[in-house]
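Hi team,

As requested, here is the filled-out complex form for the D-malate run. I kept the field names the same as last time so the parser does not choke. Let me know if anything looks off before we queue the next batch.

— J.
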Amino acid sequence: MAHLSEATIRRGDIEIAYRRGGDGPPLVFLHGFPLDGAMWQAQWEELSEHHDVIVPDLRGFGRSSLADDDVEQGVAMHRYAADAVALLSELNIEEPVALVGFSMGGYAAFQFALHHQSRLGALVLVDTRAGADTPEARAGRLAMADEVLAAGNVEAAFAMMPKLLAPSTVEKQGDVVEQLETMIRRQSPEAVAAAQRGMAARHDVGDQLAEIAVATLLIGGVDDAITPPDEMKQLAEVLPDGRFVEIADAGHMSPMENSAAVNAAIREFLGSVG
Ligand code: MLT
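And here is what came back:
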């Protein structure tokens, strides 16, 4: 297992923190909401054996900071993608990367694929969706943003907990439940509000999927209650070069709940596309 070192880059008014380690072609991971790069630990421990693994904390989350107007305006998904591109440039990585985006990180990965195509060699989308929110979901996000800011803590975000994990994970993997709770608790209300406002404003990218020509792997936990595997499977059918792998014994947080299966799927996919 390669050691990942932690560092930050300066980007305008903010700092983007990242972990990096390993040898081989670049492999970038974008985390979900309301989490940070640590959600990928089981992936970087294994995949850094054959890849130069880069794991940013998205703007506001983990050790990365927010710009002054990010909370007010929300962070649009294309801005998380632009931050990732800026990080790669700062690290002098100009060759196309393999990009793995989970849930909110997947929304950002779609933007990366659509707007920074020359930087992308292969795409892995984990427990995510192309569609925009329903009006109810959008209203729920905006309410949560207001609530965490008013409370000055992220307690309201724990309303998501029952949907994040498969029942079998809750029953048998207490360590995963604890890691997830700890990760949510350490995020700031500002990061949660900025991301929720950004996600609420995002558009459906379903009619742009034909533009994503790179080989794409879709991964979905069989018990995912947030982004059901059937939606991921349909995405694989619509994408020009898509394939789908369902992960057993996992809900939405499949990279943490069944890391062995997720790692195997990513490894086999990257092996097959070179
Ligand atoms: C995530 O895991 O990133 C979130 O469930 C995304 C969302 O709230 O749509």
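Two things worth flagging: The chain has a mean pLDDT of 97. The longest helix spans residues 135-151.

Thanks,
J.
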